[in-house]
Design a protein that fits this description.
By secondary structure, this protein is of the alpha+beta class. It has helices spanning 9-46, 70-86, 92-103, 108-119, 122-128, and strands at 48-53, 57-62, 132-143, 149-160, 164-178, 189-206. The protein folds into 2 domains: 1-53; 71-206, Nuclear Transport Factor 2, Chain: A. It has a 4-stranded antiparallel β-sheet, covered by helices on one side. A two-stranded antiparallel ribbon has the order 1-2. Helix 2 packs antiparallel against helix 3. The N and C termini lie far apart (99 Å).
Length: 207
């Protein structure tokens, strides 16, 4: 490049130094912009939730704030526990599999109920009597104003026998604490102080 405006070596040196400073400033701006852009991209990636649907399809759910999903996850955690713990079939292996999966979601308070029903022969009667039991969770009410979170569950049990179907009311309560996520506990909660408040017959229908 020809510098026609330069008249002496001192002026030329000053011009070169100025161009050097401007070049360094531009490089610094580009570097800062790249770092900031990369940081923002990483933050956006962290705000994405990947949901695997039966191992077949991959859906992408975006969330501006992952903490907003905690109430939904808490209700799903409690609902899943009740479905596993109270859904029974006349198959001992299936009963033990469901109970074991349910116990990953709760502390020893639910295990005490399991031991009590086992000692009373409840599961043996289910198998020998060819009885099926399923649960329908009507609602899960959670209080997130204080920690540990408190929750009440209102559900109905349907006990299906060869001769009749018995409908029972089931009301439980528990406290929720945050826990690490895993394959056995995807919502990242543990239920504590699980208690059955009501479990009574509502009606019996003949088949």
């Amino acid at each position: 490049m020809e510098f026609k405006s330069l008249k002496n070596i001192e002026t030329s040196f000053r011009q070169i130094r100025l161009f050097g400073i401007v070049f360094l400033c531009l490089c610094a701006l580009v570097s800062v912009f790249s770092v900031v852009a990369s940081f923002r991209f990483a933050e956006k990636q962290r705000e994405k939730i990947y949901v695997l649907d039966g191992g077949k399809s991959l859906m992408l759910a975006l969330s501006q704030d992952l903490s907003q999903n905690r109430p939904v996850e808490a209700r799903e955690h409690i609902r899943r526990f009740h479905e596993l713990f109270f859904t029974l079939s006349p198959d001992r292996a299936a009963i033990e599999s469901n109970i074991n999966r349910a116990l990953f979601l709760v502390d020893k308070s639910a295990f005490a109920y399991y031991q009590d029903m086992q000692e009373k022969g409840y599961y043996n009667r289910v198998v020998s009597g060819n009885i099926s039991q399923r649960i329908e969770v009507d609602s899960v009410v959670c209080d997130f104003n204080a920690y540990p979170y408190r929750a009440m569950t209102y559900a109905r049990q349907m006990i299906v026998r060869e001769s009749n179907i018995t409908e029972r009311s089931l009301i439980t309560r528990c406290e929720l604490i945050n826990s690490g996520r895993s394959d056995n506990n995807p919502q990242g909660f543990i239920m504590e102080k699980f208690e059955i408040l009501e479990n009574r017959d509502l009606r019996t229908l003949k088949r």
